[in-house]
Amino acid sequence: MASTPSSTDARAAVASVGIRVDLLRGLALALGYFVVAWLALRLVVVHDAVPVIAPATGLAMAALVLFGWRLVFGVVIGAVGAYLAAGMPVSAAIPLSLGSALTALAGAVLLKRAPDFRYTLARGRDVLIFICLAVICAPFVGTSIGVGALSAVDLLPSG
After folding, report:
1. Collapsed DSSP state (helix, strand, coil) of residue 119
2. Taking the complete model, does pTM exceed 0.85, yes or no?
3. What is the number of structural domains in the chain?
4. pLDDT per residue over 52-111, tens digit each?
5. Contact of 104 with 56, CB cutoff 8 Å
6. Structural domain of residue 76, as residue ranges?
């Protein structure tokens, strides 16, 4: 006698597919983050450590807004790789990467919780909310961690 799959089996199968999709998305995000961050670190850097622009953080924030916080591991992996490839010591690369991931996560959470915010940025109100939350407020997380990490490994110029 053949048994029929239970709803528990179906849920487990759907969860398994969801985990694989998130894993693939996270790895794609890690690769994209690595390439964009590495380029920014190679092209637009002040004092050998601080990028003037952070397009990889925007990429990460968009991915976290669209696909959820479960992809934050991709940001960490991509950032560690980019910092190490740019010649940072491991003692600086890891905290800087965590700061980058927390910046993207903070921006995504702030945008998701903003009342009546639309990701299309079609209204002036949405653009203003985006600038205030994602561009001005969220980077304070990463910069606070980054300054501490760079100071701890003597990569931050004094004075």
Report:
1. coil
2. no
3. 1
4. 788 999 999 999 999 999 999 999 999 999 999 988 889 989 999 999 999 999 999 999
5. no
6. 8-152
